[in-house]
Amino acid sequence: MAELRLEELSASTIVAVNNMSLKPGQEEFLSPVSYGIAATVVNPQTSWQRVVLDGDEVVGFVSANFDPDFPQEYFRSVLWRINVDADDQGRGIGRFAVERLLDEARSRGMRSVNVIYEAGEGGPEAFFQRVGFSPVGETEYGEVIAEVAL
Ligand SMILES: CC(C)(COP(=O)(O)OP(=O)(O)OC[C@H]1O[C@@H](n2cnc3c(N)ncnc32)[C@H](O)[C@@H]1OP(=O)(O)O)[C@@H](O)C(=O)NCCC(=O)NCCS
């Protein structure tokens, strides 16, 4: 694996990000209901998005929202979306992206980062737990709220 690095989303990477593939069964975990609802009130200025590159190849995407004024506490410092191209999963790229996101949160003075996910076979729960998130609650839609303290 060449050196992994993060870049801002750009005209030259956005197509590759949109064309990243998932493994069968992963689609249903991509967007828990709570994110869909929160998205309607997210301020674009508080969102952080990065592409993960391995050499010149786009292998992943990670985004977050950092907004101390967001109505729900668990959306004030939150991993919004992460995905790694199907062929590149299991190589440490997801962990790399989460670690950089936690660095970004620290540099903004955040004291924790949350993620909301649906538990279930084929979903991201085991990944989030391996990279340091622990369950701290549940949304009104039954999704898990997990947190990393910084
Ligand atoms: C979840 C996802 C981002 C993980 O990325 P990845 O690059 O495959 O993960 P990594 O290789 O960095 O794995 C990090 C750790 O999590 C573990 N892990 C990852 N996926 C796992 C799984 N499905 N089951 C068990 N453990 C898993 C790895 O074994 C590794 O553990 P270790 O570092 O202690 O050895 C990737 O599977 C994905 O894109 N899924 C589809 C999209 C999705 O569901 N996103 C989350 C909701 S937005």
From TrEMBL:
InterPro entries: Acyl_CoA_acyltransferase (IPR016181), GNAT_dom (IPR000182). CDD domains: NAT_SF. PROSITE patterns: GNAT (PS51186). SUPFAM superfamilies: Acyl-CoA N-acyltransferases (Nat). Pfam families: Acetyltransf_1. It comes from the Bacteria. Residues 4-150 form the N-acetyltransferase domain. This is GNAT family N-acetyltransferase. It comes from Microbacterium invictum. The lineage of its organism: Bacteria, Bacillati, Actinomycetota, Actinomycetes, Micrococcales.
